Structures are given as structure tokens and as C-alpha cells.
Protein: Sushi domain-containing protein
Organism: Bambusicola thoracicus
Amino acid sequence: SIEPNYDFLYIYDGPDSNSPLIGSFQDSKLPERIESSSNNMHLAFRSDGSVSFTGFHLEYKAKLRESCFDPGNIMNGTRLGMDYKLGSTVTYYCDAGYVLQGYSTLTCIMGDDGRPGWNRALPSCH
């Protein structure tokens, strides 16, 4: 085990500690599931070294994503669609007085890199 308040496990969403922090943990109660936005996660263990406990054991399983990430919202517009699974679509509409630039409908497809992604760039309203 690790010593609460003195030993910490930091998990980052990316290749190093400059990546966004997913979480910091100081006891044996890690979440059941931790996901990264890519195939990189960086783990850093920090201890004050004052006592010698057994440490920790970590197991992981890589699982391919089956859906796209949230494409986000647009300024001066709204989005219809909250399902991001492969084959799903989201459609954007502009508020009154604004004109859509780009494609209004995006579809979640399997990319050439083997990862789900949106087939088009996010539109904007001008």
C-alpha cells in the first residue's frame, strides 16, 4: 500500500508531466476506469520516503475507442445530437442573424489511423 498524505500517484493524459492531469491519488482506491484521449498516459509516483510500505501494483488493459470525442459547441449556434458512436451524426444550426460557414452535419467515422473521428471540421456561425 502507499502512505496516505505522503505518497501520491499522478496520472497524466499524454506522454509526460506537462500533459493534462487526469488525477492524483493517495490511497489504494483508484477509479475502476481511467481513460486517456490518446494512446499515451504518463504515471508519476512521488513518495516522501519516510516509511517503507509495499508500494502498489497496477494492471491496465488497452481498449480501442468505439466512439468519437465530443465535437464541442459553436459560438452563436446550437448542436443537435449527443451520440458520438461510430456512424452517428451531429448537426449544427446558427442562431437568427448568423450564417453557417462549413458543413452543418458531422459523422463519426473510423479514421485512416484506426481511431474514430469526425469526418469534417467544426463549422462556425458568422
